[in-house]
Specification:
This protein is of the alpha/beta class. Helix content is about 30%, strand content about 25%. It has 2 domains: about 140 residues, Rossmann fold; about 70 residues, 2-Layer Sandwich (Alpha-Beta Plaits), CATH 3.30.70.260. Strand 14 and strand 15 form a beta hairpin. The radius of gyration is 17 Å and the shape is globular. The structure holds ribulose-5-phosphate. Ribulose-5-phosphate binds next to helix 2 and helix 4.
Length: about 230
């Protein structure tokens, strides 16, 4: 199903496009399919959202760039951990949320590709990843707790680990706290509060970024949002 969603999104890719390349198992299908099109002569340039994706795309011979060289992109295609009917997302399960958000924000359009299990009525069943600077991380965590409590959100905040004694580090060298707040009734308010905390580098709430979501289910691929929206 992930591949079906990726295939459907690929149909909007045209020669000459500057593409943001997402991270995760669903995005990896898109990169893989794009690689095959590039092998057949499609001329595009990709900006990867993680070192993992960069290595994959490089291996497939997809021409790559950076946001410093190519600061404006036509389309980003990425996965998500959760999405709702308003095209709001939780991302960061794969640890790439900061670069994913920067790349999505640099793009005219953002397509999310997902299987139907990622669709929720209310965001928050998936613990919200929050990327924090290593300096003062315990203190930052207290601020996150307080900010969430102010919105009635109480839940376990756990530091993501790579191994029992090794904290997970993002490509940018930051920690991730996974915040199991449960249902987030006011994602905009939470996003705003988290963004004002010194030490929070970014959070996994993507609001107002996705323009279309390709949802693969047993009966085919359904599209939420507007595939052409923002293309001009
Ligand atoms: O946000 C992400 C990485 O930071 C991924 O897009 C998200 O975790 C979905 O991954 P998958 O397609 O493997 O389910």
């Amino acid at each position: 199903m992930k591949r079906a969603a990726a295939q459907a999104a690929l149909e909007s890719v045209a020669p000459g496009m500057r593409l943001g390349l997402g991270t995760g198992s669903t995005a990896a299908h898109f990169v893989d399919l794009l690689g095959a099109r590039v092998r057949d002569g499609l001329d595009v340039v990709g900006v990867p959202t993680s070192e993992r994706t960069r290595l994959q795309a490089e291996g497939l011979g997809i021409p790559l760039s950076t946001l410093d060289e190519t600061p404006e992109l036509d389309l980003t295609v990425d996965g998500a951990d959760e999405f709702d009917a308003s095209l709001r997302l939780i991302k960061g399960g794969g640890g790439a949320l900061l670069r994913e958000k920067i790349v999505a924000a640099a793009s005219k359009r953002m397509f999310v590709i997902a299987d139907a299990t990622k669709e929720v009525g209310t965001l928050g069943a998936f613990p919200l990843p929050v990327e924090v600077d290593r300096f003062g991380a315990r203190s930052t965590r207290l601020h996150i707790e307080r900010a969430a409590r102010g919105l009635g959100l109480i839940g376990a905040i756990s530091q993501r680990m790579s191994a029992p004694d090794a904290p997970y580090l993002t490509d940018g060298g930051h920690y991730i706290f996974d915040c199991a707040f449960g249902a987030i009734d006011a994602p905009e308010a939470l996003a705003e509060r988290l963004s004002t905390i010194p030490g929070v580098v970014d959070h996994g709430l993507f609001i107002g970024l996705a323009t279309a979501i390709f949802i693969a289910g047993a009966t085919g691929v359904r599209i939420l949002g507007d595939v052409a929206g923002g293309a001009a």
